[in-house]
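Could someone model MTE with this protein?
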Amino acid sequence: MRQAPENFLTPEDIRQVGQGRRDFLRASFLTATAATVAATAGGRAAAAPAATTGIGDPDILNPTPWGSSLGQPVAATPYGLPSRHERGLVRRQSPGLTQVAAASVSFAPLQGLFGIITPSGLHFERHHQGWQDIDPTRHRFMIDGARPEFVKTPKVYTMDDILRLPPVSRMHFIECGANTGMEWGNVAVPTVQYTHGMLSCSEFTGVPLRTLLEDCGADLKAAKYVLAEGGDGSSMTRSIPIEPVLSGEVLVAYGQNGEMLRPENGYPLRLVVPGVQGVSWVKWLRRVEVGDRPYATKDEAVHYIDLMPDGQHRQYSSIQECKSVITTPSGGQTLMAKGYFTISGLAWSGRGKIKRVDVSVDGGVTWVEATLQTPILSKCLTRFSLPWSWDGQPALLQSRAIDETGFVQPGYGQLRAARGSRSIYHNNAIQTWQVAENGDVNNVQIL
Ligand code: MTE
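Reply:
Sure, complex below.
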């Protein structure tokens, strides 16, 4: 399989798109898909199918340089880096999407990842006012109440205070509510990195917020909401209902995949709110206020709301509903030969575990149950796969996830009937990848 030509846009191209030439973006994607740039693009160069190599192949007949020389010493890179052959696998911005890179998004390269964990350096990023690398010795986290009776002893914690408390580690996905947002009206972007890459999954380590609230003598009967506040310049504040706090799910986290959070992801402290859209996972967390009603802040009253078909806005629809996507084969890739492929992808639900994923290769006319790879965890990505023999004919690949509540991922027809087509947030429609006779894979929509 030839990798998607993700890195064909030159800095000059990106500059032009940034100046408003958005039509140029689509033209560039199409040209690059047609051209033969792919071998240099994905990092993993286009390989001939295994069965055609062998006799006369110098890479099996001759001694290799790496087998006949001294390798690099230990600790040559004290903090390890990916192979230079993988340098095409990076998070990317969608050119022209935002005016300023400090208030923007970078998308995770889902097409090149295995299993369910996102390497920390490839975790998607969404900042409203740029990221900061905060000095942990100067970071403070405060808990107080909207009224004095809500919190008996308001406290300010240092990182040392928090690191002394008993930790828990849990694996969860985080998805921005705007993921797949560009596709509400029609096909907009060519690859899974841009359609679904505001999605990542990590093992987070931290202290349940409940533990800290109890430490401050919060009145957990009177409390109905908490307000989480970030320490960056964006005045990011979100109301979180008390139920997931009381259940112990919401974490004040400092760890991600076994190390401290990356600065881009909120170092040294972020809120983890499993199943809820990314905006509530407040980064550089500096304060939690206990209250008895939602706060209607700017990031929940006028942003991250759903524009409904009747023109009204729906607020506080925070849970990321059941969704899935095939990550390989996916848009921009090319099937180089007929025969065996593994269809593989990711499924997730903000309401619990994934129960089943069905895959179709004929645009939803027939479905086959995919294999779910363990572990299958609540509010976590689940990897699915299905063996597929491509006969060289056009195909329409789709996945449809069902979660443990019985919720079935909708098609575009169903979703638009309920939600219209002018929204930005919470698009969990079934994704279709069209395989053409020449093996090219393209993003299409089926109602
Ligand atoms: N927290 C603060 N303080 N500032 C921000 O800009 N962005 C939010 C959320 N928390 C943001 C924030 C949004 S919109 C999302 S989707 C997630 O962080 C993204 O988290 P990530 O950058 O770790 O992927």
